[in-house]
Amino acid sequence: AGEAIRVEDPWVRAAPPSVHVRAAYMGIENKGSSAVSLTGIQSPDFAKVELHETVMTDDMATMVPRDSLPIDAGGKLELKPGGNHIMLIDPKKPVTEGGTIPLTLTFSDGSRVDVQAAVRKAGEMNDHHGMH
Length: 132
Hints:
Layout: E1 5-13, E2 21-30, E3 36-42, E4 46-57, E5 60-66, E6 69-71, E7 76-79, E8 85-91, E9 100-107, E10 112-120
Parallel strand pairs: 1-10
Antiparallel strand pairs: 1-2, 2-7, 2-8, 3-6, 3-9, 4-5, 4-8, 9-10
């Protein structure tokens, strides 16, 4: 997946220092000819990192941990508020708005992609990543 994977707009939601869980979002495009799955994410800045899916049951949203999230060949996985996302648990150092969080994404074919996720408020989107 290495060269076939393109990560777009990785970001982490800013929160007060007393909050010990953050959410990270991004688009992950698979430009390759084979399906792959996102199988893990690590960050040296957090004690634990999990993939989560938001599932609606009886008008109630619950977060369900997932071992992997598939990305079809030529497809895109959107990690976004209210949907699939990354949970960053127990920061090892202060997370400040305007800073970045290093993340390493691991895929089912063994490839890895390193990204820097910007820490920002929930509504701050790049001009071309606005709400559609």
